[in-house]
Amino acid sequence: MRLTLLHIILFSSLVGFCQDNKFIATSYTPGFLLAHRADIKNLAAHNFGLEVAFEKEVSNSSWGDFYNKPSIGYGLLYYNLGKEETGHAFGILTHVKLNLVTLGSSDIKFRMGAGLAYLTKKFDVYDNRRNQAIGSHFNGSMQFGLIAHTPIRDNLDYIDYGISISHYSNAAFKVPNLGYNIPSVTIRYGFNIGTSEGPKNVDSTVLNKFDWRATLFYAKKQRNFADPTDFYNFGIQLRGLKNVNKAKAWRFGLDYTLDKTYKFSEDKTVALDSISLIDKSEVAIAAGFQWSFGKTDVIAEMGVYIFKPAVLKNQLSQRMGIAYRFTDRLSGLGTLRFHRGVADFFEMGIGYTL
After folding, report:
1. Which part of the chain is CATH 2.40.160.20?
2. Per-residue confidence of the chain (354 residues) as pLDDT tens digits?
3. Does domain 19-197 have CATH number 2.40.160.20?
4. Is the CA virtual torsion 86, 90, 92, 98 positive or negative?
5. pTM (2 decimals)?
């Protein structure tokens, strides 16, 4: 009897039961559209955003133990962009919040989100030529924020307050693409709607010291604002992943990309199908870090070109995006490659982990 009881206690301590809070959150983000280029000074204006989101604490997920008080959310976002030329934005946004430090009764959290937005106003040579920041109705949306998170009402609800920045662009898919940058103040209230109860998720997979992944990718971008021309890039990405734990890993490896814009920048009359292999090949080494949230990996990297056929691009490149693991081997990739804050292209790919 005692042995049976001991086994029950031991099993309970290993499995555990969790109670993660769930919330409906509303936020208000007054801010202003930042004129980060002289071409869009006329678009600078005060604006505001509203969001309604479902949020859930995930400390007891299979990956939650590797972060401090993590939570995830899915929301509907609206922005009044402040001027007739910029119009309004409607979008969907997913986000994750991670605790950085606790100060008294409040947690200082980092919030990052990404999604898709529809902008009602874009550049039009006849109807809206003063908007040279946005060239398409559909755009990617990103948010980053540093917020204080304070529980209230007996730790059931919460208030978030802090600063954030929102970004809208189409990743050079269509010109013009200077994009919108919107610094804001964030005020958020979360209404507790209950808890999720059940056994704690345990990831029993064995952690490899290194994983190796090959990804084939494709990208489309547009160049030449006066006479837009489409370019289609292809390439392969080889990455070594040095796993820190099951939710974090260092990344390093090699990129090979075919990009015809090098020759086009020198001669805009060139026939694109006549460009030689050497004149469209670029090779780079890259390194960075990834954070895993379940099957989703958030990626941040910096690269250095070791070969490119012309000076067109800065020697250093940066990359941000996500990879989603469909299986232990097969994954999808979506990352933005940019140089000094200027988007080059958005690469989409299929990867295989060896």
Report:
1. 19-197, 210-353
2. 443 443 333 333 334 456 789 999 999 999 999 988 888 999 999 999 999 999 999 988 889 989 999 999 999 999 999 999 999 999 999 999 999 999 999 999 999 999 999 999 999 988 999 999 999 999 999 999 999 999 998 888 999 999 999 999 999 999 999 999 999 999 999 999 998 776 666 666 778 999 999 999 999 999 888 788 999 999 999 999 999 999 999 999 999 999 999 999 999 999 999 999 999 999 999 999 999 999 999 999 999 999 999 999 999 999 999 999 999 999 999 999 999 888 999 999 999 999
3. yes
4. positive
5. 0.88
Separation between Cα atoms, residue 111 and residue 90, nearest integer Å? 20
CATH of domain 210-353: 2.40.160.20
